[in-house]
Each structure stands twice: as structure tokens, then as C-alpha cells.
Predict the 3D structure of the following.
Amino acid sequence: MIDVGRICMKTAGREAGKFCVILDVLPDGFVMVTGPKAATRVKRRKCNIHHIEPTPETLKIRKNASDDEVIAAYKKEGLFKKLGVKEPDAKDIEKAKEDERKRATGAKAAKEKPKAEPKKEKPETKEHEPEKEEKPEPKAEKKQEKTEPKSEKSKEGPAEKKPAVKKAVKKKAVAKKAPSKTKKPEPKKKARK
Amino acid sequence: MPKPSQRTRSFRKRRVTTPGGKVRIHYTKKQPGIARCAECKKPLHGVPRGLPAEIKKVRKSQKRPERAYGGNLCASCARAKMKAKNMERWEND
């Protein structure tokens, strides 16, 4: 009964009560099985023969056929209606493929994590070096800028007067602020008394 | 005297000796029974036991096995039932 292309019902595990197709017969009483997942939600996996119940239906498929080939074979035999399984749309097929991809990429990412860290460190060091080179350049420019206006100010008379005016303004501002500071503590002292 | 709300048979009475040597009665809610298989009456695995309020907080996937007949039949009974259904289905063909 158990041969490639036989449709079976799974009787154990989370996929119990769902139909699957045998893809390959393995040694030690095991079997390769698929729903496919897009159709009956049974994923491609190794399975014990004792966890499977064969049915009289068969599909004409080659050994280890792909999910697309299995779905095409289902359609040829008209088995989706007979089994009471919903025919998978393009959406269902894409979803099943995406799930597989995610699992594959997730497992790979988990393995590659330790390798990725040292790679990150190298570019960081490279980034620092150019920054150091860049930093001194703007400093030199700033120095040049600072020196230039000073020389201009020393040469020109009005440039020297302007900062003096500003200082006077600052002094006035300080004078305005000072009384306000002195006024505030006075009422507090009165309150204490 | 217990509270009026505690004077029902759904409360379990527990005798507690106090530090002073006296015996007092504590009233606690009775625990629900263990979940059992509907066919063979064996206790089910993977089904938590607790008051309804406690079990409400548990996630659905933690309340029963995620299998067909999970939480109702034990694994062996479920498998037997599935096989029988499969046989019935193809008898007429």
C-alpha cells in the first residue's frame, strides 16, 4: 500500500486528520511526505509509517516531486473535490513558499550572527580613520578664518570700537539684572523675620 | 461564622491549627477535576487544571494539544478514531 504517489491520512501530531502524498520511501519504516502545505497544510517532512493511514487514491508523480508538480497532479485526477480539500489559489501557494523562505532565512541568520559581528567592527575602524583626517582640516580652516578677521580688525579702526559698544551694552544688562537679584531676596528675609 | 457567600458546598473546608493551638476552619474554592479522555477516561496530558478565572488568563495554545480532538480525546483514542473514519470513508468506493 505504501508507495510513491499514494495519498494518505495523517493520524498523529498537529497535522492529524489531514491528507498527504508519499514522495519517497525511506529505510527503517519512514516515508517522505507532503500535503502540499498550500493545499492541505501538511508540510514536506519525514514521517513514520505508523503515523499514516493509506487510502485507495493515488497520484502519478515522480520520486521527490516538487509541490507545484503535486498540485498539478491533484488537479488532473480531480482529487481536490473528492477529498473535500480547498483548491489552492496563487495566494496560498505564495504564502506557503514565503513561510518556507522565512524559516530558511531565519535559521541562516541565527547561524551567521557570530560571523556578522566582526565584519561590523572592521568598517567602524575604517570610518573613524577618515573622520580623524577630516577633522584637522576644518580646524586649520577655522584658525585661518580667525586670524584673518583679527588682522582686519587691527587694521581698521571702526572694527575695534564695535566690540567696545557691545561691552557697554552688556554692562547695562548686568546692571539691570543685578538690582532684580537683590530685590528678590529682600522680601524673603522680611517674611522670615 | 463564615461569610454568607462561603456557606455553599462549592467551598472546601480546611482545618488549620493556629499558632495559639486552636483549630480554625478556612474556606477555599474547590478545584475542578482533571480533564479526562471522552472515550477511555484516562487523564489528558497538556490540559491545565485550575479555576476558570485562572484558566482564562492562559493562552489558547497552552490550554490543549493543537491536534484534531486535542483536549477532548487522548492521543491513542484520537488516532483510532481517525483510522476508523478513514476506513469508513473509502468503504463505498
User: Anything to note?
Assistant: Strands of chain B lie at 11-17, 23-29. Chain B has two domains: 1-30, 32-93. Residues 1-30 of chain B form one domain. Residues 15 and 24 of chain B are 6 Å apart (CA to CA).
